[in-house]
Design brief:
Layout (H helix, E strand, L loop, with lengths): L11 H17 L5 E2 L11 H10 L6 E3 L6 H10 L12 E5 H4 L18 E5 L8 E4 L7 E3 L5 H8 L6 E6 L2 E5 L4 E3 L2
Parallel strand pairs: 2-3, 3-4, 4-7
Antiparallel strand pairs: 1-8, 5-6, 5-9, 7-8
Helix pairs in contact: 1-2
């Protein structure tokens, strides 16, 4: 069977509800890592990134694919399973890629004072996602959390823009964590 047609949720109502709950919990509890399943997207993206795309995008959510994620197989898969329109970075509500591929971050919608809710959410593919590294504090974190981040300077600068700025969903394999713009980030 064609790879574009496979790899979506086998039981969409149940699996999308579980995935949405995990994503909601991740945003509410920055730094906590959640396991997800149900998607089998084409390379080069992870199961967690595929789950996030299937759960958060549809025909009304502009998506930007960056770097290696901008490939024919993934474009077709997204088109078939979510119908999200593929757009340039400055028009994206969601963007997917590695941290390096998503640079520079200034090309995403992060500074709309009249509509801070229209800022981009970055789905960042990482080589590792562990509860160690940078120190996180802020809303949803009782005392502190630790999370392996690709860097800290960009997240500190992002926090300084609050209530503007971008939100992040960090993915690796079948695991994800979130880093909303309200989170304070300090070096380990």
């Amino acid at each position: 069977m064609n790879a574009i047609l496979t790899g979506g949720f086998a039981d969409p109502p149940t699996q999308s509800a579980h995935a949405f709950r995990a994503l909601l919990e991740a945003m509410a509890r920055p730094g906590r890592i959640f396991a997800v399943m149900g998607a089998e997207p084409p390379a080069p993206i992870s199961v967690a990134a595929g789950v996030a795309l299937l759960t958060l995008t549809d025909a009304t959510t502009p998506l930007h694919l960056a770097g290696a994620a901008d490939c024919e197989a993934l474009r077709g898969w997204v088109g078939f399973h979510s119908g999200a329109p593929l757009v340039a970075a400055d028009q994206a509500q969601f963007a997917l890629g590695t941290w390096d591929a998503l640079q520079p971050l200034s090309r995403f919608r992060i500074r709309e004072p009249s509509y801070p809710d229209r800022s981009a959410t970055l789905i960042v593919e990482l080589n590792r996602l562990e509860a160690q590294g940078a120190r996180l504090t802020g809303p949803g974190i009782e005392t502190e959390a630790r999370l392996s981040l690709p860097e800290t300077a960009a997240f500190r600068a992002n926090r300084a823009l609050f209530p503007l700025g971008f939100d992040c969903i960090l993915t690796c394999g079948a695991r994800l964590a979130a880093l909303p713009r309200s989170t304070n980030v300090e070096d380990a």
